[in-house]
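Lay summary. Proteins are chains of building blocks that fold into shapes, and those shapes determine what they do. In this project we predict the shape from the chain. Here is one chain we studied, written as its sequence of building blocks.
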Amino acid sequence: MTPAQSDKSLYDGLSKKDRQALSRELARIRREEEQRRRRRNRAIAIVSVVVVGVAALGGVGWAVYSGIRATYTGPLNMLSDGIVFTGDGSTTTAMTTAAIEPGGTPIASELDESTVLRITEYVDYSNDDLSTFETANGAALQGYVTAGYASIELHPVAQGGEGSYGARAANALACVANTLPDAALVVHNALVAAQPDLPEGGLDDEALVTLVQDAGVTDETIASCIRGHEFSDWVTAATDRAEAGIPNSDVTALTTTPLIIMDGTAYTGALDDTDALNAFITEVFSAATGATDDGTSTDGTGTTDGTTTDGTEVTPSE
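And here is the predicted shape, written in a compact code that computers can read:
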């Protein structure tokens, strides 16, 4: 039965007046039903828009959160606030580590000082003295690393504060360490090489991107990281930590750069005196390994007269 037929049956037996009254009442009921239907549809539409909007905002919010979180998370492969390089006789490789989480603390690197010379450098790429030291000694020290005789741990800091060239350069190195850690030493060398000819205020972000790319690191993620100062907060925090104390060393705190530490002992000689540095290296490495100046051992496996306890001859190693 159609609605019209149903309505017609309602009028059967009614007077004209009653039929008119019933018609008005049915019309009122239909109007109210139509109004309710429209309100219901409008509510559904509003809810749908809100849901879509929340989803969209959620995506944007997550992107924003991720970006903010990145600024408070340290770079990968620098859990100690530094990046460590070791060698196998022909190749220099960066040690890989997790990142320092927001609110976390760095974990000092642990290396066997009895087998390799452990070199730690705190560097500010805006400091002229860094170029002085690296020009005189950098190639030789990195050669020791490649040969497997030493390790180098680079700690970029920015004593000029947030926004300084030292901070931007340290961020650039962190961006490389985070994505392509093995390339960080090459970029370090490029930053050192650029130091004597820096313009006033240092290189800007685009110039740093160009420097890194000219060094062979063309990953766009790294370029974006440099432009966005992704690890600037970490640079500030790492500098503050170094200025509060230096782990595994005889140095109370970082006061000036470059700071060079060999097997836990700070080098205090002239930065461009290669002979003084070599003598210092010999001294600290001999102390760590138990060797004497004539190449014999004093660690209990031999005697200072060049023979072992069973009378056989000791041949000093190179």
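What the prediction tells us: Strands lie at 83-87, 92-94, 117-123, 150-156, 259-262, 265-266.
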